[in-house]
């Protein structure tokens, strides 16, 4: 695996655990009416998913980072690729290129080193396609190779990707409105099993300084956090691993995770779900759910973000709106990553919050992530 961005060999990394998916993004002039038929201004593929986006941002900020999440096994032959995605199989011999607007590289078979976790790690995994005598290589399903190549180009360590024996790579159709910068996401994320506590046991915790969890499978992630807590109890202060948890989706079963991370990010969607109308209101109302000494953070789009530190003090940062709102897809993931980056560097909560809003504001002013630093 390529060395992670910006890191000296041996430097402890920041790991993000959660979703990676393919985002198929259409930039539209304005949000279309239901049952209409319009052209978009541009279209691109982007590696997405909260944890995966946060890794992109950490890498751009220069932090050595690692992604842990699930991917489907090396795909079927291209002729079956459409079937795997629930669509019509591509005709035999069809080379299913990424769309022409794709900004990513056209790589179909990631080098063996691109994604960690060789199939041998799980005996029930199908074998990775092999090179046969220098002949043509079998092509992988393009979404998987696109994701693999994109992790690699960002220098994100993927050694702990959990290869699942079944399921499809999650994929989202995203509409970004040029008129408002809003993003509307429809995600297909139904049948790929999540990373388990057992997968997480293989992580050598001494190599990480911070592990961030995007809340998805609470019971398993609770066990992963317990493992980190046990490690921390036995480790000297400078070898401890800091933890954070993001609760974005208002799903009841995820709530126990609020009581687990040292830093807890809650989304405005979750806050609204509980009836709160602002970030400070949500922090005051939900503070009882976090563990003593933890920090609770809530971002609120153009209103910036608020946080409640371990000392019970409320801190606030205004947003840094760009001249034009261009693309808010992944603004929250950018904010989380930038806050984690700053806190991991030892900066104060106020500084970290301001930095998070500044970087997230820049992200809202550009398509994608290139240009946030
Ligand atoms: P999400 O992408 O999860 O919906 P938010 O909308 O809460 O995340 O935004 C996260 C951060 O991104 C905010 O705290 C803010 O700093 C920045 N941000 C998002 N939308 C805007 C906006 N319209 N104007 C300025 N900053 C924004
Ligand atoms: C942005 C994002 C997208 C993805 C969706 C998943 O925050 O991670 O990249 O399609 O959310 O919910």
Automatic annotation (TrEMBL):
Gene3D superfamilies assigned to the protein according to its UniProt record, in alphabetical order: 3.40.1190.20
Pfam families named among the record's database cross-references: PfkB
InterPro entries reported in the protein's UniProt record: Carboh/pur_kinase_PfkB_CS, Ketohexokinase-related, KHK, PfkB_dom, Ribokinase-like
Record's signal peptide: 1-30
Sequence ranges of Basic residues compositional bias: 121-131
Keyword Transferase: yes
UniProt GO BP: fructose metabolic process; nucleoside phosphate metabolic process
GO molecular function: ketohexokinase activity
Coiled-coil regions listed: none
Region (Disordered): 82-139
Key words of the record: Kinase, Signal, Transferase
PANTHER family, per the entry: KETOHEXOKINASE (PTHR42774:SF3), PHOSPHOTRANSFERASE SYSTEM TRANSPORT PROTEIN (PTHR42774)
Protein name stated in the entry: Uncharacterized protein
